[in-house]
Amino acid sequence: ARVEIDVSAARHNLSTIRSSIGSSKILAIVKADAYGHGLVQIAKGFGDADAFGVVSTEEAIALRSSNITHRLVLLEGFFDENELELIREFRLEPVIHNKLQLEILKESKMTFSALWLKFNTGMNRLGFDITELDEAYRQLRPLSQEIILMSHLANANLPDDSSVQKQVERFRLATSKYSDEKSLANSGGILNWRSSHFDWVRPGLILYGVSP
After folding, report:
1. Nearest-CA neighbor of 102 among 125, 118, 87?
2. Taking a C-beta distance cutoff of 8 angstroms, is the pair 51, 63 a contact?
3. Helix (H, G, I), strand (E, B) or coil at 134
4. How far apart, in whole angstroms, are the C-alpha atoms of residue 122 and residue 164?
5. Cβ distance 155 to 161 under 8 Å?
6. Minimum mean pLDDT range among 3-7, 64-68, 112-116, 190-194
7. What pLDDT, in 10s, does the model give residues 61-109?
């Protein structure tokens, strides 16, 4: 078996997304070795992205070691306090989505250039309960110069699913008091739900030519 990776085609996909999202910034998802396409070569092909999303510090360090200077977001945050020094050294931006991570951050007394705060609006997988958002934000605020508020859409691949619009409305209402940047749209949201775009969009599968 043989697989040919066409980086120029991937670059074209990113350009097509860019033309459809207005002023939103792009957090290009390159997790899991860029979905098996080759982490470093794909990231270099996606040079016009505003940031990259990875799963682990190992992936992030591989990008930094290859002279990738973009903002790097750890989509699952960190798993223990030992990772915090690496996060600071390599200028990474962890997603904070549970109370354990929050406690580890507070105990470390470290500050970070940016933190992403994830809360649940209906997917029910990761993130603080929506009722916990304000308190989590209050505790994170002293720890970072920048906080980006985010959530994840469950059924954005379905253009007529009313649950998606309910999630968008929950997200908008919960974050309305904050002037911080916001991120909700995944690949399906980019394609089907303009109301979900906000400040950052997070394309994954559609970067690689796969429809969600």
Report:
1. 118
2. no
3. helix
4. 9
5. yes
6. 3-7
7. 999 999 999 999 999 999 999 999 999 999 999 999 999 999 999 999 9
